[in-house]
Design goal:
This protein is 43% helix and 16% strand. By secondary structure, the chain is α+β, with helices and mostly antiparallel strands.
């Protein structure tokens, strides 16, 4: 999660809250794609999870030799991120390493960026004897075995979020995801994309489900990560059903939802002021400890909300499990095909509206348990997934962004498309032939990035 820049302008009215969305609008010819990919590491000999003090800091030191610049929250504080040429390497609370990619024009460039990242990590990983895992939930470790990254926000979240949902620490320390960020041209375009992706996010999670193990055994879920997100703070996560029930939602509807979510903190320079639980609506009206709401506070607050699809200066689709390297560009490819072609977006939006919201909500638990082997209402999930992929393939074909070999962007979606055509999510491949209690070595071999 990238930090927001300082913007000390005061917020004077609710209308000011919408500026972040209006200022982000751009013509479709300027649309870009930003991919984010998290991953776990374990030590090869002990299978212990990567820690911050020795493991992460050693990785960061070596990456700075490749031109990455360290970022700290205070002048003498620990390094909590690296930045280079529009990209960043950040840390989730349990020392999951995340590549937050630069804004790029097509999926070929996204794939190249991922490949470069893996190439830079490879010799470092050999030197430090680390194995990276491409799954959505840490398959071996108990919570008490995982570290905490020394970041101001995470210390506050660690205390506050468990009061709002029992999945809090699991979410923070034991989950990993692949996300993608997209542009929008105006309010209507943003809302069409937001509504479609929110309604389809349980289906998209099912077709990318890739977290079937927990604490060294089969977890009983295709997406154990997806299950965690069903047990999070309901005021700051989920499908935003009230927005989805509106006939013509707008920026203000998203802002109204965000206003009623509890805050974590207010930042003033290097100082973090915890105000957990105060809604932004109350902060805007009354302030906190003499501090009044600024544009930077609002931007930070939007970055601490966790719906399945998040609106800020981009539209961030957040519903997918971390995937292995061979599928690393499949999620941004799928979503690009749905969102960045006019015909595909219209088809995707109509397809999303055709799924009754009540049926989607009722199916969520079955979807995280069974993936493509269940249904949404009376409709088999596998058939719905196949149709969604078909829409995306059409969009990627019409975009006609070719690589040096003449392949369009469908080449990056193909490995996932082939799985779905067999009725499989990635988790089904991980589970094939695994008994109830596999060895730790077998789990690591299967989950290797």
């Amino acid at each position: 999660m990238a930090e927001v820049s300082e913007d000390s302008r005061p917020l004077r009215s609710k209308a000011d809250l919408l500026d972040i969305f209006h200022e982000a609008e751009k013509p479709p010819t300027a649309f870009l794609i930003g991919a984010e990919a998290e991953k776990f590491a374990v030590h090869e000999r002990t299978l212990a999870p990567l820690d911050y003090e020795h493991g992460v800091t050693a990785i960061f030191v070596r990456l700075t030799e490749l031109g990455w610049q360290p970022e700290r929250e205070s002048a003498h504080g620990p390094t909590i991120a690296l930045r280079r040429a529009g990209a960043s390497i950040t840390l989730e609370p349990g020392a999951q390493l995340e590549l937050s990619g630069a804004a790029l024009p097509d999926i070929h460039a996204v794939r190249a960026e991922l490949d470069q990242h893996f190439a830079e990590l490879s010799p470092i990983s050999r030197e430090l004897e680390l194995t990276w895992l491409g799954v959505g939930f840490q398959p071996l470790a108990h919570l008490d075995a995982l570290p905490w990254v020394p970041k101001q926000r995470y210390a506050i979240m660690r205390q506050y979020l468990p009061t709002r949902g029992r999945g809090a620490h699991d979410m923070m320390q034991r989950t990993a995801t692949v996300q993608a960020n997209f542009d929008f041209s105006n309010e209507s375009d943003a809302m069409i994309k937001l509504v479609a992706m929110l309604r389809l996010s349980p289906l998209i999670n099912a077709l990318t489900a890739n977290s079937p193990f927990a604490e060294g055994a089969r977890a009983g879920f295709k997406s154990r990560r997806g299950y965690v997100w069903l047990n999070m703070d309901p005021a700051r996560s989920g499908l935003l059903p009230e927005l989805l029930r509106k006939e013509h939602p707008g920026y203000s509807d998203y802002a109204e939802w965000a206003l009623d979510a509890g805050m974590f903190l207010v930042k003033r320079g290097e100082r973090a002021i915890a105000n957990t639980g105060q809604t932004f609506r109350d902060f805007l009206a009354h302030g906190y400890q003499g501090e009044r709401a600024t544009f930077a506070d609002w931007k930070l607050h939007l970055n601490t909300l966790f719906p399945e699809v998040r609106l800020k200066n981009t539209l961030e689709v957040r519903c997918c499990d971390c995937l292995p390297a061979r599928l690393g560009a499949a999620v941004p490819a799928l979503l690009t095909g749905l969102l960045y072609d006019e015909q595909s977006l219209a088809e995707c939006h109509a397809f999303a509206l055709d799924q009754p919201l009540e049926a989607i909500e009722l199916a969520r638990m079955d979807l995280v348990r069974h993936g493509l082997e269940t249904s949404i209402g009376a409709r088999p999930t596998r058939r719905l997934a196949e149709r969604l992929v078909e829409i995306a393939e059409g969009g990627l074909a019409r975009r006609r962004r070719l690589d040096s070999s003449g392949n369009d962007e469908r080449v990056h979606l193909a490995p996932l498309s082939e799985l779905i055509a067999r009725g499989h999510a990635p988790a089904d491949e991980l589970l094939a032939g695994v008994n109830e209690h596999p060895t730790a070595a077998e789990l690591i071999a299967r989950c290797r990035l």
